[in-house]
Amino acid sequence: MRRTILWLPLGLFLLFVIMVVVGLRHGEDNNVPSQMIGKKMPPFALQPIVPGHQGLSLADLRTGQPRLVNVFASWCLPCRVEAPQLMELKRRGVPIEGIAVRDRTEDLQPFLAQGGDPFDRIGSDPQSRVQFDLGSSGVPESYVIDGKGVIRLQHIGDIRPEDVGALYRAWEAAK
Amino acid sequence: MLAMSLLLAAPAFAQSSLPPARYAYTQLEDPRQEAKARALMETLRCLVCQGQSIADSDAEMAGDMRAFVRERVREGKNPEQIRQWLIERYGAWISYRPPVEPLTWPLWAAPLLLLAGGAWLARGRFKRRRA
After folding, report:
1. What are the residues whose beta carbons fall under 8 Å from the beta carbon of B58, sequence distance 6 or more?
2. pTM
């Protein structure tokens, strides 16, 4: 009995080493997924921010047609990187609405002129409030919202060329 | 060299050009409400700088969340209601106060188990000394 107890510290130490090795190998996943998937988008109403685009409210998302809502900002670098992929989704027929986080008209206009403008409506979220409603933890993020306003999918981070297919299929599935 | 200086110049977090929200860096007028809001903010995790509470973080999103918390408290919302609202959206992750649920029971039980184990070991010691 005494003998076996002497091995206990070594055993605990080995357990600790195993946990460290496993932790290091898995790397860390810093994404915080939204808990709102499968739930209805809460009511919101965002003011317009650029001429030529109306603001965005919940009613605009409950038109019976699924759409992609892109949470972005002109000051966000990955948002520039994903612009061509948004244009591609638009070309394939996906309606895209924008939520511009903490943005200004004079910054947003050149951003859209450079990267392309796939958006139907763009609502301004100057204090990240709709981000909190969505359970969104940063920019860019994209959401597939079905015709009844139910959140079907959350894509965290920029849309890479290899993500376009999956997002398109999720949009089709939400029909 | 140029590439290196460019790398160093890149900001850790992209910053917008908008000023902070009204209550991001301003306390509530009522000190009792501010104390409540403060206590809650210290136990909410910042979404972009994940090791800090929103009370400690200078990230813009943390500022917006502080403003959100202060406004809700000012409206008379109970801090636990606000925490629950955020947990519904971000999961228990956002709160530094872990709930008691099947997933977290080892966390709550570990101190008791360790104390019991320690008492058991100590008891053995005392017995031997008496003998």
Report:
1. none
2. 0.81
Q: A98: buried, middle or exposed (CB in 10 Å: 19+, 13-18, 0-12)?
A: buried
On average, the pLDDT of chain B sits at: 85
CA gap A99, A102 in Å, rounded: 10
Strands, sheet with A151-156, edge to edge from the N-terminal-most edge strand: A56-57, A45-48, A119-125, A96-101, A67-72, A141-145, A151-156
Residues A14, B34 contacting (CB under 8 angstroms): no
Cα dist from A51 to A108, B16, B85, whole Å: 11, 20, 34
**Residues of A whose CB is below 8 A from B67:** 127
Strand partners, A123: A48, A99
Segment 28-87 of chain B within 8 Å of chain A by CB? 47-48, 50, 60-61, 64-65, 67-68, 86-87
Strands A151-156 and A119-125: unpaired
At A3, the pLDDT band (50, 70, 90 cuts) reads confident
Strand partners, A47: A124
Contacts of A30 in chain B (CB under 8 A): 50
Q: Which of B51, B62, B74 is nearest to B21 (CA)?
A: B62
Q: What is the DSSP letter of A50?
A: S
Q: Which chain B residues are closer than 8 Å to A76 by Cβ?
A: 14
- State the ipTM, two decimals: 0.83
Cβ within 8 Å of A, B 77-96: 86-91, 93-94
H/E element holding A60?
A: helix A58-61
Q: Does A33 sit behind a cis peptide bond, omega within 30 degrees of 0 on the bond before it? A: no
**Is some CB atom of chain A closer than 8 A to the CB atom of B17?**
yes
